[in-house]
Amino acid sequence: MAETIRVIGDTLPGADLNAPLLEVDDLRVEFQVRGKRVPAVRGASFTLERGRTLAVVGESGSGKSVTSQAVMGILDTPPGHITGGAVRLHGVDLLDKDEETRRTIRGNHIAIVFQDALSALNPLWSVGFQIGELFRVHRGTGRKEARRRAVELLDLVGIPDAANRVGDYPHQFSGGMRQRVMIAMALALDPEVLIADEPTTALDVTVQAQIMRLLKRIQAERNMGLILITHDLGVVADVADDVAVMYAGEVVERAGIREVFKRPAHPYTKALLRAIPRVDAVGRELEVIGGLPPNPASLPSGCPFHPRCFAAEDKCAAEVPPWLEPAENHGSRCHFAQEVYTDER
Ligand SMILES: Nc1ncnc2c1ncn2[C@@H]1O[C@H](COP(=O)(O)OP(=O)(O)OP(=O)(O)O)[C@@H](O)[C@H]1O
Ligand code: SF4
Ligand SMILES: [Mg+2]
Questions:
Q1: Would the pLDDT of 23 be above 90?
Q2: 216 lines ligand 1 (CB under 6 A)
Q3: Ligand nearest to the CA of 246
Q4: Is residue 190 left, alpha or beta, with left meaning phi > 0 and alpha meaning psi from -120 to 50?
Q5: Which residues pair with 255 in a beta bridge?
């Protein structure tokens, strides 16, 4: 069956079906802080295809959320400014589109789920009303039909007895259930790309796993592209297809998830992997990455990871490492990517 680009609410003029679903190309974002320009994202590049799950992994402050805000078109401007790069959906650059076009793309083509469901939901409205509102505003759906669709979505995301819970308010749901409601809202307009920014951080481990499985199931059923943002590589091991590892605003390694677990090509990724608890290593002490993430206002010279890197040499403080590809579809921003990849470092 030939695939068509869904044009809900509005068309995406110039869309090219042969182009990747979503392409982030050398994205750069700066913040104006006390009269100074501070880089938050310094060249993020990755591609997402339909039906694939990309994990974006990195420590706090590495630029994961700012990247997703820029992709969604919800960056706080000012103080934030996109200073370079491109975000292409079906080949169409979104960064030069006006706010009205971006608004149509949000929800209809790209949707986002945030970490904190409680603050993202309106406490004064029932969840059914909040989901139904999306259909009424964006599709002109009638009240009764909007409520029926809301029940359908709540059911889809695993809210038991959805027909009776649709009139309940956010505070009447548990944290995990509220996160499911947020996912239902993000799915309402049938987006092609879903970004989940630390969707399970506030939840306990069992609920985390349930939400991950839910996202994965829906992603597969709807053939969506899913971006999972997390600081924990372990959480995404079973659900992601590809990984982009971010450090100090840059993507420093990018590859298939199995490949990254088997043969990391960047010392930072190696360190992240050593910090994952493993069931077969009970009693072994977890390694932590020494030192702190750098201050974006005064980044170390050369490779920004060098003060914390176990493999650093003099060259690392002097020269910015290039993007190297020790294997096909496996890139790393490290002078010694090849040696790290072959475990000689
Ligand atoms: N509104 C803002 N004003 C100034 N700086 C900001 C703003 N929002 C983010 N930043 C800065 O941009 C950088 C990247 O932040 P971002 O929120 O993307 O990190 P993150 O990787 O999502 O971290 P976390 O894991 O803590 O969510 C940080 O240095 C942060 O301080
Ligand atoms: S370039 Fe040097 S400091 Fe940077 S990650 Fe590679 S070995 Fe470590
Ligand atoms: Mg974040």
A1: yes
A2: no
A3: 1
A4: left
A5: 243
Weakest mean pLDDT among 158-167, 199-208, 304-313, 333-342: 199-208
Distance of CA 334 to the CA centre of its chain: 23
Q: What is the pLDDT of residue 230?
A: 92
pLDDT in tens, 254-277: 999 999 999 999 999 999 998 887
State whether the beta carbon of 68 lies less than 6 angstroms from ligand 1.
no
Atom of ligand 1 nearest to the CA of 62: 21
Give the pocket of ligand 2 (CB within 6 Å): 266-267, 303, 305-306, 309, 311-312, 316, 321, 334-336
Of the candidates 194, 198, 244, 197, the one whose C-alpha atom is nearest the C-alpha of residue 221 is: 194
160 Cβ contact list (under 8 Å, min separation 6): none
pTM exceeds 0.70 for this model? yes
- C-alpha 312 to ligand 3 mean position (Å): 28
